[in-house]
Amino acid sequence: MKKNSDRTLTAVVVAVVLLALIGFGIAVQNVDQIFPEIASATPKPQPISKTVALPSFLDGCLRHEENTLTITEMDGMVSLLQKYRCEVNELTEADKQLLAQGIPSINTQEVHFSMEIQIIPEASQLQHQLLQEMIEWQKLVEYVGCFYHCVRLSTTEINEANIMNYAEVLDEQAWQVDQIYRIDYEVFGTVGDRLFMFNIAEVLKPAQSTEEINVLDVTDPQVIAKIRPLVDLEVPQ
Questions:
Q1: What whole-number distance in Å separates Cα of residue 129 and Cα of residue 121?
Q2: What is the C-alpha separation between 85 and 113, in angstroms, rounded?
């Protein structure tokens, strides 16, 4: 009996091994269908990116002004990311002594501003991307707003059909654009083949426990006149 049992066990093991080998062979033959990303020998294209310096655009900058534009091109789409920072407050004598010794001032106040521009020639794709960016921002606003102090029992799914319920329409004529919206502190708009986005909070950041936040008035003609030309930045060749 024991010999028959051993033979049966051996036969089962051999059968399992054979089935596993057959299955492995089939999987290897069809790996391109099961895992197409593995079978593809063509490497994914890498974005082409470069950063250039831009001239000053903020009145009242006192020190360490930086204004840069990063151009990224991938899959036929060009993205521009403009970043600006500047120190704007008067330094005390103590601050100056610290800086003379190479030690950062604890009272330095900086203005930060950034704008992202995407150049999308296809009109329907441009509109779709605008709505997607607004959806993502509204989701972020709701997530951050509820992160520490509330529990959501239910939430409305944010999509292209209802995103405009969360957006404030700004004056297209004043901005000289095709459309422009505000959600919380973020502005979204399109003009021609360009989608632009920027944050309207001008944040002064002393290295202390408190921060002072001055919100830009995006209906102020002077603010518009300062920001609007950035939308038309030419792409350096």
A1: 12
A2: 7
Task: Give the side-chain half-sphere CA count within 13 A for 198.
Answer: 27
Domains of the chain by residue range: 5-40, 48-200+214-232
- Vertex 206: Cα angle to 201 and 150 (nearest 5): 55
What the block records as the tokens of 61 is: 């900058």
Tell me the C-alpha distance between 114 and 197, whole Å.
Answer: 9
3-class secondary structure, 105: coil
Say how far apart CA 163 and CA 208 lie, in whole Å: 37
CA–CA distance, 231 with 81 (Å, rounded to integer): 11
Rounded to whole angstroms, how far apart are CA atoms 68 and 17? 62
The confidence band for 16, taking pLDDT boundaries of 50, 70 and 90, is very low
Q: How far apart are the first and last CA of the chain?
A: 86
Averaged confidence pLDDT in the chain? 78
In this predicted model, what pLDDT tens digit does every residue of 218-235 receive, in sequence order? 999 988 998 999 899 887
Distance in angstroms (rounded) separating the CA atoms of residues 225 and 216: 13
Contacts of residues 155-162 at CB distance under 8 Å and 24 or more positions apart, as own/partner, are 159/135, 160/128, 160/131, 160/132, 160/135
Cβ(145)–Cβ(102) below 8 Å: no
Q: Is the per-residue pLDDT at 11 higher than 60?
A: no
A 10 A CB-CB count for 137 gives: 21
